[in-house]
Fold this sequence. Notes:
The chain has helices at 42-49, 115-135, 152-164, 175-183, 197-204, 224-227, 250-255, 266-269, 273-289, 305-313; strands at 2-6, 17-21, 30-39, 66-73, 85-88, 98-102, 107-108, 143-146, 167-172, 188-191, 210-215, 229-237, 260-262, 296-301, 320-324. It is of the alpha/beta class. It folds into 2 domains: 2-121 and 270-324, Alpha-Beta Complex (Quinone Oxidoreductase, Chain A, domain 1); 140-263, 3-Layer(aba) Sandwich (Rossmann fold). The strands form 3 sheets. Strands 3, 4, 5, 6, 7, 14 and 15 form a 7-stranded mixed β-sheet that branches. Strands 10-9-8-11-12-13 form a 6-stranded parallel β-sheet, with helices on both faces. It starts with a strand and ends with a strand.
Amino acid sequence: MTHAIVLDEPGDPDVLQWRPIDDPVAGEGELVVRHTAIGLNFIDTYFRTGLYKSPTGYPLIVGSEAAGVVEEVGPGVEGFSVGDRIAYGFALGSYTERRSLAASAALKIPDGVDDRTAAAMMLKGMTARYLLCETHKVTPETTLLFHAAAGGVGSIAGQWAKAIGATTIGTVGSAEKAEIARANGYTHVINYNEEDFVARVKEITGGKGCDVVYDSVGKDTYPGSLQCLRPLGLYALFGQSSGVVRDFSLADLAKYGSLFATRPGLGTYVATRERLEANAADLFEMVRSGKVKIPVERTFALKDAAEAHRALEGRRTTGSTVLIP
Length: 325
């Protein structure tokens, strides 16, 4: 019998219940996958609280990334076999021991990448890749600001941007996280509980500001993020861990220097199989080359997902966290 973390209604972590579900079956174009490791991400809390609406109603299984082994191949599927190690990073419903999964979402894990690393890297790593390579194409001439620099995406992005040769500024909330950010390649690290990050960015850049600000924090960093940009700079808001930005004004873009703003999401950047494979290929190559290391800092048993959510929302996690079925 298969067990999963299921919620019947949105709410606090207590709504996450460990219970049996029907065993999955591989339909047309699907695989049945037995999970070996499951990624924990802030987007999981958005679905849990109802900030992001369930596309299928309730009961709901949250989670978007995992690694595992193919147990069954459905009709019409080519390129996958029973026993293949696969991972995925954008398919709701990962908080379960076993699941059916559209084969179009699955990616084979290359040799040299273990399952826990794969589970920790797919959503966060593909997010870092589209942010740095597509949302704003980072070059050695780029100066960027990345909020939550010690988090899952931030840790990967810092290493990736360092490999490119960019000047990187990261914000964190503690001395411990500052050390993590430095270890992950950030040129400058700002503890926003000790310094005014806007003033410090101005100091670091000689008053010029950054070319791009990557912001997954939201409410607590707005409009400060805009004030950190050079004229014609880009504000990329890709998350909202502190809450939704509710007072955004187009007039502010003019006020702070004819700025550009975008609210990107991974789904758009990997909407076709071709784009998904290109993104993942770059990510796997960065990891296999050693230019990017995936710091799996904590693990929780899948049945303890509620505890993992409390740690994540309480900002008691760094790097990546995985759930083990």
